[in-house]
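BUG: 3D viewer hangs when loading the predicted structure for this chain

Environment: internal workstation, default settings.
Expected: structure renders.
Actual: progress bar stalls at 90%.

Input used:
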Amino acid sequence: MALNYFGQAFKLAFQISPILLVDGIAANIPGGILPIAAFTEGLSVANGLLHGEIGFNPTSAWMPMAGTTLVQQEIGTLNFYNQATAANSVVNKPNRVIMQLTRPASTQDGGYATKSLTFTALKLALDQHNQSGGSYIVMTPSFIYTNCLMRSVLDTSGFSEQNKQVQHTWTFEFEQPLLQISQVDAVLGNLMSKFDSGMPKSVPADTASWWSNGDSIPAVPKL
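Structure tokens produced before the viewer hung:
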């Protein structure tokens, strides 16, 4: 019983609705979070209820794709003062999260008619959410990415003998930027301190002004 419960929880979280819309169109919802299954599975649930079916049979399946990053950094390639500074000059870069949605038309929930309505509602919702400053939480079995922004939604369907339909597979690409100012300050401050530690110390002779003997700045004569 326990295994079945956790198995269902895992399936719901990582395969049926692993993407959560935060703020944006979900701002007025208690908690400010809306699962994407409200759009990908909403019509399927409603259609099942119309036929007296209370059970939940998802028509969509999500999975994380190759190319998703857990740690991504840029290595400095400038001419550094010493090797120690060059070897430790790294700057964090935004993580890339790629999710694949498989949603073929099904004969059990209205076929292509329901699929067309589902994706029309999904596109309108995503457009409004993105334009109103909403972000995303993307859950994968290895890591939960927060504060993500959407980059693209691409049709990556390929013809196969198992599935001869068109537009049955979509790829959602997200980016997890350094949103917080404290994170940016920490990363850049760390890097700049390494640069500074590798630079030679200045001497008074290097900072002498163009007027001789380090005298004070002469007064500008009045016209």
